[in-house]
Amino acid sequence: MSFQSVPFLVSLAISVALYSLLPQRWRSVFLACLSFAFYLTWSLPYTLLLLLVTVYIFYLVQKLDEAEETRKYRILWQGVVLLVVLLVAGKYGREVLMSLPAIGLSSSIVNLVAPLGISYYVFKLLSYLMDVYAGKLSAEHNFAAFAAYVSFFPQILAGPIQRAVDFLPQIRAARQAQPYQLSSGLRLILFGLFKKLVIADALSALVAQIYKYPKGYTGFELLITSYLFAIQLYADFSGITDIAIGSARLFGISSPKNFENPFYAPTIQEFWRRWHITLTSWVRDYVFLPIRMKFRYWGWVGLTLSIFINMILIGLWHGATSPFLWFGIVQGAYMVVSVFTLKKRDAIFARIPGIPVFRLIWQSALTFTLVSLSLIFFRAENLRMAASILSSILSRSFFHLGIGRLLETINLVWGDTRFVVVVLALVYMEIIHLVQGNLKWRAYILSCPTALRWLVYYAMILILFFFGDQSAKPFIYFQF
Amino acid sequence: MREFLKTAFLFATGLAVIFGLLSAVYATRVSERDNFYDLLKRFENQDVRPSVLILGDSRPIFGLRRKFMDNAIYNFSFPSETYREMLLKAEYALRQKPSIRYLIIPIDYHMLSSFYAADKDATHLFALASSADIRSVYEFSPGALALAVLHGYIPLTDPEARVTFITVIKKDVYSLLSGRVEKRTTFVTADGDLVPTDETSWSEFSAAAKEARADRRIHDHLRSGPVVTDAMLRALDHLLSFAAEKGVGVIGVRFPVTTEYENRMREVGLDGVDAAFAERKNKFVSELDYLRWSREREDFFQDADHLNSKGAEAFTKQFVADIRNVIK
């Protein structure tokens, strides 16, 4: 059951009503059952696997809680190894099996080795295990609350990766959602659907058309396409995140932010602090910082190694393919250059008067361009295609600056009405993001007359209804 | 919480009102101007008492002109109609006009294809058939039937209807701003023919353009999947048995196409279609093949597989004469 489908929205409304009618002690049980039932709509074997893992880690953590200090480390490793093996097998087993045609496995069997949302729930469980071991969190003894945390349906397919320390107290309290949570949750769901169906899916059709035959376009057109794909990915991923956070809010559960205007980031470091925040903060806390500590006496080599390991891990988290590996390497290289040149750049710009505003715009534009270029690895079908697109962008043809073919493609894929709608929707999305990030503006908008605000919501619903993509394209981050 | 529920109810009511208003606009601007309903109204006229009823898709509707037919022959075809629609229309027509003795149906090569099998838009048919009949002919599951009923009675719930709505509204806005009335792509003439607004002549196109256009048509009609589908065969058999049950003769007609279209069509491989129609040959009173009719007259065609007014005039004369021969 996909997040943008009518059955999902109807069952969400019914579930929220039932949840609020239930006595408090039954709510976590209800939420766990509901989450497993939601996951079951995707696949029975995946659901059984999720149940098994949940039960086993619950049991392990009970043992960890009762064990003597000397045994705790072994129990932790037992859990960590199991989860990592599961993650590697789940994420990369498919690629391995597919690369071995001699075995002759049917595609349905191969597909079984890629459970949906595995990266999200395994990361949740890993952090939970490590936090309990480190004493940051006490072991959860209520299985229903724990199962609800692992399988929480708004988050299981595409995050955000919420930490147990944040989630479990909320599910234990199992409070009914307050009216402000309901209205803000509904607003977020509406905005998420708007981003996905009006912006991301429209851009997806256009980008797909261009990626079918990239050689037919000039370097300049391909650069614009790479910007468009970056925006598509953002609208798609932040759209599903908004729906997830909004849906959680309807059950009175607050979720962590996953994005904070990443395309306005002035540096690559800042970009990664604003993009897929729950993944990057997870990798920072459980991978980067421990490695950095290990390499702390190695000077700049240690820092470079830590950054590269961190970024390559983020790249490979998306899948075991060479384009994702290169995505991680390129991001690592950006980050290393950015970190090591920051002081010098600051010193140079400090000498030029009146430069800060110009620098901010220039830095944001450059960061956006660098990120968009690295995302070519993300979108291309293989490394050869990515290399070919990048070489076109970096070739002399770039300076012809012709966009005739691109405009033709836009006309073919969208037509004039859709073009206007997509452009206006993009502007609207950015206004909303800026408002969301500014308390003063947010307060002002919320103080506007109800009729005015409702008009905006009605307009969004109508645009979704008339211009939203009806082909139910899956969310990009579902596959991870 | 009560306050929230009250607000939510008010919001939903407002949304329902807006949807109602848009549906009213749709009913006046789109449904009322829908050529299908116009043609249906004309057919329902009591003075119409045909003995021969022509059913079919865009080829018969664009390729025949009422002016050159007598009152005994009535063209009740409509663009994109498949054997499913023809069956439901035949059932309806025979209830309305017991004078009908012959049905003319197309036996063109694309009629059995997956392109037509995939067309499950039954919106128009709610005006002339019951939900149960639609369900049985379209082989809808209960859910699909519910959706079809919803689309039939509340058209704006249908994504395709929304696209039409936007197109119409866009034209209205354009007309309002420019003061010029935007032309519709097709319209019903005073005679009751459905004709395209802008007619072209196939002879005006370059050779490359002809090839490209013919290729595109064949891609849509025959290359999107199997050229013979069980679903379309079942609908055809259903239509033939219905006619036999009612004692109505069926005449099969293959309509004219251009050389470019036929050449591309032959590349696909049509033995299956020939075999399917050959198997049912005895169920037809007669089969008339006009596939290569007036092939040298490219100016008779407006595109790869449709006649223009000039071609339609010449074709209707020949067609009517042949039909008279068959039914005399």
Structural notes for this entry:
The complex is a heterodimer of chains A (480) and B (328). Chain A is an all-alpha fold. Chain A has 21 helices and no strands. Helix content of chain A is 76%, strand content 0%. Chain B is globular and about 75 Å long. In chain B, strands 2-1-3-6-7 form a five-stranded parallel beta sheet, with helices on both faces. Chain B has a two-stranded antiparallel ribbon with strand order 4-5. Chain B has 13 helices and nine strands. The termini of chain B are far apart. In chain B, helix 4 (83-96) runs parallel beside helix 10 (230-245). The A-B interface holds A 176, 179, 182-183, 417, 454, 457-458, 461-462, 465-467, 470 and B 1, 3-4, 7, 11, 14-15, 18, 22, 159, 162, 165-166, 170.
Strand portion of chain B: 5-15%
- Structural class determined from secondary elements of chain A: mainly alpha
Q: Count the strands of chain A?
A: 0
Proportion in helices of chain A: over 70%
- Report the end-to-end length of chain A measured between terminal Cα atoms: 17 Å
Chart the SSEs and their pairings.
The complex is a heterodimer of chains A (480) and B (328).
Chain A: H1 6-21, H2 24-40, H3 44-66, H4 69-98, H5 107-112, H6 118-133, H7 143-151, H8 153-156, H9 164-173, H10 179-212, H11 219-250, H12 268-274, H13 277-294, H14 299-317, H15 322-351, H16 356-379, H17 383-393, H18 404-413, H19 415-436, H20 439-447, H21 450-467
Chain B: H1 2-31, H2 35-44, E1 52-54, H3 58-63, E2 73-75, H4 83-96, E3 102-106, H5 114-117, H6 131-138, H7 142-153, H8 159-178, E4 186-188, E5 194-196, H9 207-222, H10 230-245, E6 249-254, H11 259-268, H12 271-279, E7 286-289, E8 301-303, E9 306-307, H13 309-327
Parallel strand pairs in B: 1-2, 1-3, 3-6, 6-7
Antiparallel strand pairs in B: 4-5, 8-9
Helix pairs in contact in B: 4-10, 9-11
